[in-house]
Amino acid sequence: MKKNLIIIQNLEYFQNIFPIERIQVYNSEITLVISKDLSKDVLFFLKNNILCQFKVLTSIAGVDYPLNKLRFQVVYDLLSLKFNSRFRIKIFSHELMPVFSCVHIFSAANWFESEIWDMFGVFFVDHPNLKRLLTDYGFEGHPLRKDFPLSGFIEMRFIENLKRVSSEQIEFSQEYRTFNFISPWQVFKL
What is the pLDDT of residues 39-83, one digit of tens each? Predict the structure, then answer.
């Protein structure tokens, strides 16, 4: 808790500058939940303010909560080398609500934002080169969404000698499609 003491002491000052929706402290790690419209300003402030100096963006992660109105959570993890402390910023969005890119503040955000776009479908406004990184360009959908189908009728596989991804129809024999098992609930009559 000592290493975040300076940050905790300045949270009231920080709250006067930016409206904060929620503050969470767990194991001496501070998390701010803010509006997505303030993300650029807050990240810029945390990087350049003399009392914060979070100069390193260690990661940006995406989380999907499909039952929530704002289903996507974007989490920024920051590190201050001067004060040896970590800080976390959380914002919420949904499919049609873009998030502001922070590539011009932290250059490390370039890869992270492209990966979140590819895996979750969260769009980042003003990103210099938003593209798919982990899936093929012809791929439809976003694999880390909770509503992404886990099985289907198309198989994707990498063909080594062609050095590309191929999609082929899956064909099952008929004996694999019909199951006449007795339900375990029907075996024992009470």
Answer: 999 999 989 988 888 999 999 999 999 889 999 999 999 999 998
Domain-embedded: residue 139: no
H or E element, residue 165: strand 164-169
pTM for the full model?
0.76
Residues 128, 105: Cα–Cα separation, whole Å = 13
Q: Are 67 and 92 in contact (CB under 8 A)?
A: no
Q: Is residue 70 part of a domain?
A: yes
| Closest CA relative to residue 51, chosen from 1, 104, 8 | 8
Number of domains in the chain: 1
pLDDT band at 1 (very low <50, low <70, confident <90, very high): very low
Angle CA 10–12–14, to nearest 5: 70
Q: Which CATH number do you get for residue 42?
A: 3.30.460.80
135 within domain boundaries:
no
The most distant pair of C-alpha atoms in the chain lies apart, rounded to whole Å, by: 73
